[in-house]
Amino acid sequence: EVQLQESGPGLVKPSQSLSLTCSVTGYSITSNYWGWIRKFPGNKMEWMGYISYSGSTSYNPSLKSRISITRDTSKNQFFLQLNSVTTEDTATYYCARYEGTFDYWGQGVMVTVSS
Amino acid sequence: DTVLTQSPALAVSPGERVTISCRASESVSTRMHWYQQKPGQQPKLLIYGASNLESGVPARFSGSGSGTDFTLTIDPVEANDTATYFCQQSWNDPLTFGSGTKLEIK
Fold first, then answer.
1. B23 at interface of A, judged by CB pairs closer than 8 A
2. What is the per-residue burial (b if ≥16 Cβ within 10 Å, else e) of B63-98?
3. What value does the mean pLDDT of chain B take?
4. pLDDT at B82
5. Residues 20..59 of A with a Cβ closer than 8 Å to B: which?
6. Which of A97, A98, A101, A110 should we substitute to test contact with B (largest number of B Cβ atoms within 10 Å)?
7. Model confidence over A13-57: pLDDT tens digits?
8. Any long-range contacts for B47-55 (C-beta under 8 Å, 24+ apart)?
9. H or E element, residue A77
10. Residue in B41, B43, B96 closest to A47 by CB
């Protein structure tokens, strides 16, 4: 069974970088696409970007200057880095497998941006 | 960006039929998908490609629509269907989600 698990700090200071890891079991990240989605307080959901089976990336233009998604195929993990965060980046962050739809999701990790 | 508009909330009684709508600001063909999210849980895929039932999802759930207007139907509704339902399109870049419809079971 495909399982995803996010990990990373729950508190980040403004202007710093947010870094999260998604660990995947039951499926190789060298197949399909693997994405990050966040849900803000109040329910709005935003697709942030994804990394493909080959390592190519696609990002939401609203984040393009601040976001980087990378991977470590030896550990079957992929990563999110979001730079220069503000309080507006406070959200629950999910990783998910993307195959035209997001069919497998992690549990999510809540990240608060605050000094 | 393609804006997906959903009504914010609905309340129905068990056994009733409920339809949840999602309107897109531009055509998304049939690349509309529906997710259920219960409090404290991750979203769960229910319907993909507007009308295809994801494996393991009860046949009480169905989807329809194309272009700009889409509907998720639950018939009959059960008490454990209490959740927020999101639509999401994958036809236009960037991928976008609706704002969610909170379904309350009376």
1. no
2. bebeebebbbebeebeeebebbbbbbbbebebbbbb
3. 97
4. 97
5. 37, 43-47, 58
6. A101
7. 999 999 999 999 999 999 999 999 999 998 899 999 999 999 999
8. B47/B72, B48/A100, B48/A101, B48/A103, B49/A100, B54/A103
9. strand A77-82
10. B96
Neighbours of A79 (CB within 10 A): 17
Locus of tokens 């729950």: A10
Give the pLDDT confidence score for residue B7 in this predicted structure: 87
Q: Tokens 């509309």: give the residue.
A: B32
Separation between Cα atoms, residue B17 and residue B73, nearest integer Å: 7
